[in-house]
Design brief:
Order of helices and strands: EHEHEHEHEEHHEHEHHEEH
Number of strands: 10
CATH topology of the largest domain: TIM Barrel
Strand content: 5-15%
Number of helices: 10
Radius of gyration: 20 Å
Structural class: alpha/beta
Strand order of the largest sheet: 5-4-3-2-1-8-7-6
CATH class of the largest domain: Alpha Beta
CATH superfamily of the largest domain: Phosphoenolpyruvate-binding domains
Largest sheet: 8 strands, parallel
CATH architecture of the largest domain: Alpha-Beta Barrel
Length: about 290
Amino acid sequence: MRSLLFVPADSERKLAKAPACGADVLILDLEDAVAADGKEAARQGAAEFLRSRAAGGPRIHVRVNGLNSGHIEADLDAVVPARPDGIMLPKAEGGGEIGLVSAMIAAREAIVGLDDGAIEIIPIATETAGAIFNFASYRGASARLAAIAWSTEDLAAALGAQSYYDDDGGLTDPIRLARSLCLYGAAHAGVAAIDRVFPNFRDTELLRKEALAAARDGFTAKLAIHPNQVDVINEVFTPSREAVERANAIVAAFAALPGAGVIGFEGEMLDVPHLAKAKALLERAKEAGITLH
């Protein structure tokens, strides 16, 4: 999972084009991209799209409305029978909410004959001020938890911030704190960290710069709001052949010395965390279709 593209579930035109854009995951949006009077049409559009999807296409998640919206029950009633791969929970405020939504999904899975746990959950975990204090609680919250994402727009609004960019064009300190906490929270929970949407979909150079910084810091995927962003995101978050070759060599070097906690490798001393990092990279490469031996 490298790229996750939001698609308004009430737009037949955008839904029709989305599967060909190259995104690893399509997020059918029932929340921010849909006006209040369009929610029911969006639910129907999402369910129809899910039922008609072709085999071998991208994974499909649905961003439902938040727990306090008054819409989430109807959202789940509409889309769970159509068997999405996952639910994206906006305005999440910790592991307790993941457990609650997991139970809501489980009840509906049972009704339609899906295996318990078939549908995963990805929370957007930085959209309220209270959410910032709860990242540690995601660990062990649910086996459905697949990743943790962060975002800027709702958080900036919650803070009353005039902008989330500083005078040099970087993110302000309060917003960077949320970004960092997402990384720590995801690592603590043992799941992937997903970087925010870059709002200027026409500026692919700045998108690339932000994606490279995210990959450097430990994010393994990025949200997108336009198909034009997908190719750049996929490129940045696909491990290079050189990185895969090095990771394979590290794994092989440890395998040659079973039981060793530390090995010498190309002039460096590597220990168990380096091995774990190499194995994680190889797993991501495999998901992206890259295999080197």
